[in-house]
Amino acid sequence: MMKIKRFLLMIALVCLCACGAQHQAFNLEKEGLLYSYSDNVMFYYPRNWRLEKDDLKLSVDIQAPNSREAMFLDVYAIEDRNTPSELVQIYCTKLENLGVSVTASSEIHLTSGQSAYRIDGENGRDGTCFSEIVLYVGNQQYVFSYIAEQATYEENISEMWEFLMSLSVNEAQSVTS
Q1: Which of 7, 139, 141, 146 has the lowest CB atom count within 10 Å?
Q2: CB neighbour list of residue 36: distance below 8 Å, 6 or more residues apart
Q3: With bands split at pLDDT 50, 70 and 90, how would you rate the model's confidence at 8?
Q4: In contact, 49 and 63? CB cutoff 8 Å
């Protein structure tokens, strides 16, 4: 009887250890690189991805080595005086007019504490899915996106979401061309 209890206890311990080994915390500093853009925008991106900056378009493209997924940071000037919630509705409408299906939109708080919007969607024409952080600071809209083929997206979105959430914009300055 005592041997059976010990055996069951050992099995329980092995199961607990195995479950704990599968759950590892994602470390943004270890898995990614910090990038500063125009002295007021900072974010992390995957360590082994290639980054290209376009100062004329105020954008940063980050490409995965396998080319099946990418991240983008785009900065747009805002001319009208709508509230951020109205602006994000206008942005979602623009996406839908381009043939993209917006599946979810919600207000969130970034790791920096800034209030932003999360937009998720898919493009039925090419089978890609995306998640975006949309942040309004001053007269500018910051869109930090992750896009991938559906299978790759579903496999990687939890880690990629950590990178998207790392976006931080210094409100004292603005990016200008």
Answers
A1: 7
A2: 42
A3: very low
A4: yes
Radius of gyration (Cα) for the chain, nearest Å? Answer: 20
- The rounded distance, in Å, linking the Cα atoms of 139 and 146 is 23
Smallest Cα–Cα separation from 94: which of 141, 61, 46? 141
Taking phi over 0 as left and psi of -120 to 50 as alpha, with beta for the rest, 39 belongs to left
pLDDT for position 46: 95
**Domain tally for the chain?**
1
- Residue 23 falls within a domain, yes or no? no
Rounded distance, CA 154 to CA 169, Å?
Answer: 28
CATH of the domain at 99: 3.40.1000.10
> What are the start-end ranges of the E strands in the chain?
32-37, 41-46, 50-54, 59-63, 69-77, 101-109, 115-123, 128-137, 140-149, 168-169
Q: Which two tokens stand for residue 71?
A: 């991240």
Residue 9 covered by a domain:
no
Q: Determine the length of the chain.
A: 177
- Give the count of beta carbons closer than 10 Å to the beta carbon of residue 40: 17
In 3D, which of 110, 103, 101 has the Cα closest to residue 144? 110
Contact in structure between 169 and 137 (CB atoms under 8 Å) = yes
pLDDT of residue 164: 97
